[in-house]
Write a sequence for this structure.
């Protein structure tokens, strides 16, 4: 057996052993792709998935890279229909479908599932041989099976998390009925008794003084019930995702906010994202409105912006207000938890924000110190 044959066998064995090292999708990709790129002296690799006739970038190395907005879908369909590895020289048409910058050499495309392909960029001047492609094909398909398992595992984790959230919601609703709604009802009951006593004592003017408190309790009940309905009616996103210009969306949100005199709002240039436009509007409206509520002094500032983190964006809404006490930070995203004593608020806003962000595949967090302002960060996939 020649040295070259032994080297090939060892290389294929090493690739095979790099498959399925983690149930986490990205970690699974990292383990395999780093070995693949190193052993084959490749420049870059990426995985794309066809979904609803759109190309979704699932992974790229090295990163970060941005997926192309418009690609030749016929070319992608042709590669999937081939159902076998192909080696194509880098030309303009090929460059247009690559989510990474490539120049010269060849792109080798492997189908890994019926809707996903793995591509790598080889800087070599000669194409890969059909023998080399056939040798790698079963290993790459095995890698595709492991990625499907990773995707199924992560989807199961997401479904479990949603189930836990729904169970927590039910507990919250039970708490609302048993406590939060009973409180204004008890107030109304007491006030009605006082009114009866005042009327029996022929003191109608004194009885009338209780009426504003009854209206206030009724408004609180209405706010709580409306909050429950808004939160429980948050629909699954599914087909409602559209290309959304966040610059226009935030301008619309800003026009609806009551900005205290002397408070500045700084909004940086924002990207376009695929999102449920109405829900994304709710996210920024709630976060910006909460921040403005905390800003009282002339010269206070609210800042909105983002960072590009490769596979996703991280948005932020910051203020230089009084901040949020550490004791309150862990529960700010829970249903009916309020950051202040304002009785006109239901405490539902940040819970809605958290749910919308998670339904878009992102996460939200709070960073704050008392006296140093607050910053809400949330991620959104590209």
């Amino acid at each position: 057996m020649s040295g070259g044959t032994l080297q090939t066998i060892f290389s294929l064995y090493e690739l095979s052993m790099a498959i399925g090292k983690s149930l986490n999708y990205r970690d699974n990709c990292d383990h395999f792709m780093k070995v693949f790129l190193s052993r084959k002296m490749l420049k870059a690799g990426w995985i794309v998935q066809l979904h609803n006739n759109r190309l979704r970038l699932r992974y790229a190395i090295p990163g970060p890279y941005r997926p192309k907005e418009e690609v030749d879908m016929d070319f992608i369909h042709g590669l999937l229909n081939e159902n076998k590895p192909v080696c194509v020289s880098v030309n303009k048409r090929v460059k247009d479908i690559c989510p990474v910058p490539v120049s010269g050499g060849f792109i080798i495309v492997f189908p890994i599932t019926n809707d996903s392909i793995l591509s790598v960029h080889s800087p070599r001047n000669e194409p890969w041989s059909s023998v080399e492609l056939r040798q790698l094909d079963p290993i790459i398909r095995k890698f595709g099976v492991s990625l499907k398992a990773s995707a199924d595992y992560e989807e199961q984790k997401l479904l479990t998390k949603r189930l836990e959230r729904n169970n927590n919601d039910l507990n919250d609703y039970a708490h609302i009925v048993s406590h939060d709604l009973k409180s204004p009802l008890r107030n109304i009951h007491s006030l009605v008794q006082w009114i009866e006593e005042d009327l029996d004592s022929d003191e109608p003017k004194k009885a009338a003084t209780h009426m504003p408190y009854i209206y206030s309790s009724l408004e609180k009940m209405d706010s709580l019930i409306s909050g429950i309905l808004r939160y429980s009616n948050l629909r699954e996103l599914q087909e409602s995702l559209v290309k959304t210009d966040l610059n226009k969306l935030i301008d619309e949100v800003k026009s609806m906010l009551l900005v205290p005199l002397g408070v500045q709002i700084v909004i940086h240039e924002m990207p376009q994202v695929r999102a449920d436009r109405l829900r994304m509007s709710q996210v920024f409206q709630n976060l910006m409105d909460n921040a403005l509520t905390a800003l009282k002094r002339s010269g206070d500032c609210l800042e909105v912006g983002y960072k590009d983190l490769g596979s996703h964006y991280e948005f932020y809404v910051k203020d230089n207000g009084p901040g949020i006490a550490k004791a309150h930070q862990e529960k700010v995203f829970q249903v009916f938890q309020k950051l202040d004593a304002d009785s006109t608020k239901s405490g539902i806003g940040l819970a809605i924000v958290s749910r919308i962000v998670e339904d878009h595949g992102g996460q939200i967090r709070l960073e704050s110190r008392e006296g140093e302002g607050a910053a809400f960060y949330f991620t959104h996939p590209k």
In short: The chain has twelve helices and twelve strands. The mean pLDDT is 82. The first strand starts at residue 44 and ends at 51.
